[in-house]
Specification:
The protein is built from 5 helices and no strands. The protein starts with 8 loop residues before the first helix and ends with a helix. Helices cover 54% and strands 0% of the residues.
Length: 111
């Protein structure tokens, strides 16, 4: 991860969330049955009761992005069909963002 690198909006949202979780709620990033838990992350980030409202659009979008990142293939397909998240300029979808970003931060911390 380079300081000069520009990341797409989805990564920017997720980088901010993972930094917050890693610093303030590190137990939210522990594995449950070998996987990260959407419910645990959403609850720890206080996004559980968040509903779609104009003033909280970015947080609501982040909630959908976390659901997509941690979701099953069926969930991911449903989110894409409903166009709930934005694809990158090449029509690709991000995958395992939380895990990648958490790994980057762990490397920085251990380095």
């Amino acid at each position: 991860m380079s300081g000069d690198t520009r990341y797409l909006t989805n990564y920017q949202y997720m980088i901010a969330m993972v930094c917050y979780l890693k610093a303030c709620k590190p137990h939210a990033l522990t594995l449950v049955n070998g996987r990260l838990s959407y419910e645990k992350i959403i609850e720890e980030a206080n996004l559980k009761d968040l509903v779609e409202e104009h003033q909280f659009y970015s947080l609501y979008y982040l909630k959908k992005l976390i659901r997509f990142d941690l979701g099953s293939e069926e969930t991911r397909k449903e989110i894409l069909e409903e166009r709930e998240i934005q694809l990158d300029n090449f029509g690709r979808t991000p995958k395992d963002m939380i895990i990648k970003i958490n790994s980057w931060l762990s490397e920085v911390n251990n380095g």
